[in-house]
Amino acid sequence: MTAVRIIIFAKAPQAGLAKTRLIPALGAVGAAQLARRMLDTTLASAVAAAVGPVELCLTPAPSDPAWQGVVWPPAVQLSWQGEGDLGQRLALATSRGLQQGEPIMLIGTDCPGLTPALLSAAAVALQTHDAVLHATHDGGYALLGLQHDNPRVFAEIAWSTDSVAASTRARIAELGWQLFEGARLHDIDTGADLQWLPADWRVAG
User: E strand or H helix at 96, and its extent?
Assistant: First the structure.
């Protein structure tokens, strides 16, 4: 199987800045603690999937004091998301990743359903498709795999709305790419979403 680069988009889990829509349910510190646990879990799953290089694409930049004291596994590559809206930053990471010679999978840190088995299966599907999508129940997506670089995939998307996945499907169809779509997953964004956390997780409040 051709190696697939997993690019994890991650935001520093700082109290008051991370997972702000969870603050009413968990408090600022609790929301930041959950954000850190989801980041650590996503990273561990990406490494365990063992499908190719793992890149953490961070905001702020890896050298920022927000990341001080955070120790990453030595094999994980660090990069900066850059400036611009989410679409521009995703397009930049995609272009940079594909230039390394591997297909890429873009994931966030908000979806505990991104298990090593699911990531491995998505990488297999990407071997025979131009794109792979795992949409979320809120209309976004938790994983987007791509074989080709075209910024149109990320253009004119109303980010953080329930139309993101549908618009992305439309862009992929417009480009004539073959899409594999996996099961819908649950993101953890609001207090109502906490029911979808793994049963053995304790959420600090």
Answer: helix 86-98
